[in-house]
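It is worth pausing here to work through a concrete case rather than discussing structure prediction in the abstract. The textbook approach is simple: state the sequence, then state the predicted structure, then interpret. We follow exactly that order.
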Amino acid sequence: MERKRGARFDGKFYQLAGVNTGPMPAHPIGIWLGAYKPRMLAIVGRTADGWVPSLGYLKPEDMPAANARIDEAASQAGRDPSVIRRVLNVGHDLNAEQFAELAIEHGFDTFMVSQDLMDHIATEIAPRVRELVAAHREAR
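Step two, the predicted structure:
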């Protein structure tokens, strides 16, 4: 892909002409959205690489419908829903069984946790979650 020299933008309030855009990224840059409402969830399904909601704003009882909306929109757009990463921001302490349920029942494959929970989760919770998820997968 050939790159033009200098970026140009003619906006109502701001303009750019001949601005150096820098080097091309060494790898693809993903689009990850933290969405909650049906319209945005459909955009996640049609176009995004990942979905990143926060626990609290997204309640566990709303997760099945949100995942279904993403999956339906992805399928309608000709995309495989399984390629959309599901990442959950977790701002409070959960036990291993709760994390495992979020992975097994709701499809979250990654959890982001606050720094103050990191030691506890890394040493005590994460190993147990991995055991629970592996046992569930083996049983299937």
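Step three, interpretation. The longest strand covers residues 85-90. The chain has one domain: 30-139.
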